[in-house]
Amino acid sequence: xxxxxxxxxxxxxxxxxxxxxxxxxxxxxxxxxxxxxxxxxxxxxxxxxxxxxxxxxxxxxxxxxxxxxxxxxxxxxxxxxxxxxxxxxxxxxxxxxxxxxxxxxxxxxxxxxxxxxxxxxxxxxxxxxxxxxxxxxxxxxxxxxxxxxxxxxxxxxxxxxxxxxxxxxxxxxxxxxxxxxxxxxxxxxxxxxxxxxxxxxxxxxxxxxxxxxxxxxxxxxxxxxxxxxxxxxxxxxxxxxxxxxxxxxxxxxxxxxxxxxxxxxxxxxxxxxxxxxxxxxxxxxxxxxxxxxxxxxxxxxxxxxxxxxxxxxxxxxxxxxxxxxxxxxxxxxxxxxxxxxxxxxxxxxxxxxxxxxxxxxxxxxx
Amino acid sequence: xxxxxxxxxxxxxxxxxxxxxxxxxxxxxxxxxxxxxxxxxxxxxxxxxxxxxxxxxxxxxxxxxxxxxxxxxxxxxxxxxxxxxxxxxxxxxxxxxxxxxxxxxxxxxxxxxxxxxxxxxxxxxxxxxxxxxxxxxxxxxxxxxxxxxxxxxxxxxxxxxxxxxxxxxxxxxxxxxxxxxxxxxxxxxxxx
Amino acid sequence: xxxxxxxxxxxxxxxxxxxxxxxxxxxxxxxxxxxxxxxxxxxxxxxxxxxxxxxxxxxxxxxxxxxxxxxxxxxxxxxxxxxxxxxxxxxxxxxxxxxxxxxxxxxxxxxxxxxxxxxxxxxxxxxxxxxxxxxxxxxxxxxxxxxxxxxxxxxxxxxxxxxxxxxxxxxxxxxxxxxxxxxxxxxxxxxxxxxxxxxxxxxxxxxxxxxxxxxxxxxxxxxxxxxxxxxxxxxxxxxxxxxxxxxxxxxxxxxxxxxxxxxxxxxxxxxxxxxxxxxxxxxxxxxxxxxxxxxxxxxxxxxxxxxxxxxxxxxxxxxxxxxxxxxxxxxxxxxxxxxxxxxxxxxxxxxxxxxxxxxxxxxxxxxxxxxxxxxxxxxxxxxxxxxxxxxxxxxx
Lengths: 366, 192, 396
Description:
The structure holds 3 protein chains of 3 kinds.
Chain A: E1 5-9, E2 21-27, E3 30-37, H1 45-50, H2 57-62, H3 69-84, H4 90-118, H5 124-144, E4 153-154, E5 157-158, H6 166-188, H7 192-198, H8 206-211, H9 217-221, H10 228-231, E6 244-246, H11 252-276, E7 297-305, E8 308-316, E9 324-328, H12 330-334, H13 338-342, H14 347-357, H15 361-365
Antiparallel strand pairs in A: 1-2, 2-3, 4-5, 7-8, 8-9
Chain B: H1 6-24, E1 49-53, H2 58-61, H3 69-73, E2 79-85, E3 91-101, H4 110-114, E4 120-122, E5 138-139, H5 141-144, E6 145-147, H6 148-154, H7 156-191
Parallel strand pairs in B: 1-6
Antiparallel strand pairs in B: 1-4, 2-3, 3-5
Chain C: H1 2-21, H2 26-63, H3 79-89, H4 100-116, H5 135-143, H6 145-156, H7 160-191, H8 196-202, E1 206-207, E2 211-212, H9 219-235, H10 247-250, H11 260-285, H12 301-322, H13 328-355, H14 360-385, E3 393-395
Antiparallel strand pairs in C: 1-2
Helix pairs in contact in C: 1-2, 2-11, 2-12, 3-11, 4-6, 4-11, 6-7, 7-8, 7-9, 7-13, 9-11, 9-13, 11-12, 13-14
């Protein structure tokens, strides 16, 4: 037997969050080289958008980070509104914040479940997370018509108004969440095995994180105080009081805990938004959806998605379809430092590190 | 003082509570045994499009006028419309062929949004599997046409709003026609 | 009540008597008697295996707030039949380049020791298949054969993943053998013999008339029992020690290249081994076939034995559902730096308890001798691996 082993982890693998492959070179149990290979889910999203109208690109954004379709919709709508100079209806801004924070909640608890599954806890935490996530998906279904693939945001607002009783149901979900998060914390955060598996694994210094283009919880876990909801204050986030947690060591445990803390902050934002939503139209009546022809120019619209900074860079030549439709995928860019994080760790840690970065292949490959 | 191993015991307690609770509490046993229990879909749920017709005759009461806006706006281009023509070759306001390939359709609902005539709406039927990947999944006009009563049964609020709007439009048109006729009559009377 | 208790023995005696009346020679009756016992034991344990394969999935499911398999038969109880048919009809692939003899023999070498160790367990009053004076020694000696089988499976498969998995499995099993055996020795030492039936008898009687005198209710017995339980989990490659089978990491480790009936045999061997070691745990620490309270002795002893074994198996499934997997270095450090010293501490505590006359002083001393290393080692362990209470800063 040679001194090092080359292993290909994936693309069919229970823990790679989709069709993702890593060519790992092992010296015993330690990783000496890691090359990510992806593109197995490439679906020509950006090229398709060049041959469809501006409105038609909206359902395709659902399928990017398919766990968080509503935030993808918002990012694209934001970019087009910047490009075409469209103002957003007031009530729609509140609905956007409510749906975005609900999306963040269900993404973070699904993350908890997945990383526990990667560590071999046989799906218990995953099932609890999915049980709660179902409540949020039911809310999405009664609002937009679909649990995922919502296609709900439009240029200047939202597609349709909240059905009767939806706000009350959302309030009940938000009120019940802290109890569920407490149960998950009782199950997880004191667990010595979990702590041993996550603490000290792949620490990421703040300057390395910034250089590597990290964003989202990964960046904040390394101690960098950067949240686009505060930095850009897009939408009406400046009206809500919420805190942004940040870590110190930047290891897997920090990345894990930051998301749990962020989920609690999302509940706070939800409660404030539900309490103060005004009446009014849900879309700017002057905004065109079908047949929109934004003036020639370019715009970059970005949001703080649950996985990081999701941005759309759009170039218009005045026509009815984009000239260039570029997606800044947070999952892909957060993978920049994957090899660096995994070098010197054990093979069992590779899965945990990949899980802690929280990627979705729909976004990595587009 | 934190006993080593206490976190593990706490975790075991949570799972034990869930185990016992799954026998007694509904919240801890959320499985719906399909196909004996079917999920109760909310009103807004959508699966694939269908065409609405008023009255009893599907072909006669069809609202679609073959304007082809939905075909143009459909993102994956799954709609095929061929306009009907009479013997002279003049275009009629109805489709001869209207097909939707539901293997391609992504249920985005844009066709519903852009239709100016309230003729295409989203159905809720999801039990559409077939053994052949191609032919049974292309729904033709006959399969797509469903009555307004059916639409009212699956989307009551939406259907009520659409019906009210169509009724209001019809009344406005009638009032405008009556006003036009009334204006023409006194002019005749004055002339005559 | 006595009738039910002695039913299996009486039944066998009646049958042999009948055959003797029909003129079957004595030597044949002796062989037949042995075969009957072997057949019954194997049938019971394979039945338990079949039941457990579905009960595990159902218990795991209930913990996860969902129903388990419930379509095949009432409550899904015929699921093992469906699984069996599936396993038997699957294509048996042997990879090219695999050593055919080693690859073929690995499941056999795994299954045989798992069945052989069932011979010395006392299933009820006077119901030990083979009364060996060194019964516990026999159990560990024969049981170690399964470790060879794991390595044969990994090596014979000619696959990088399998070899890696086999290496980890061997490291794990060897490391956990020592605390396992030491804690078993503790019970044997107090009972004064290596014969399982003597160890069970040593846990007989009731203190104050109603408190059972099982070893697990003493400080040293609790510690030794817990160490034995953890070692049992590790020996059976069950979560949280299922690194060799690390499904989410290396597919199936040493079992990657096995399919069909051979995989079923491994699966069977693992479960039978799990029950065997649960049986030993019950014998050594939980009082074997003894009832916990005097008036409960109407329930036959073999019922109590299997009831306790099923309860211990249930806790193993419960632990599997809850705890994530340990990494290899944590696993080995835990075995050598925590379990091994603790088993010595239990040993010392048991000796002090015995020589201090088994009275209040003995209880107190043994408690202290066990608690101090536990706290010291435990906190140093958690401080090394499962460190800090982290604080997070928030910005407004």
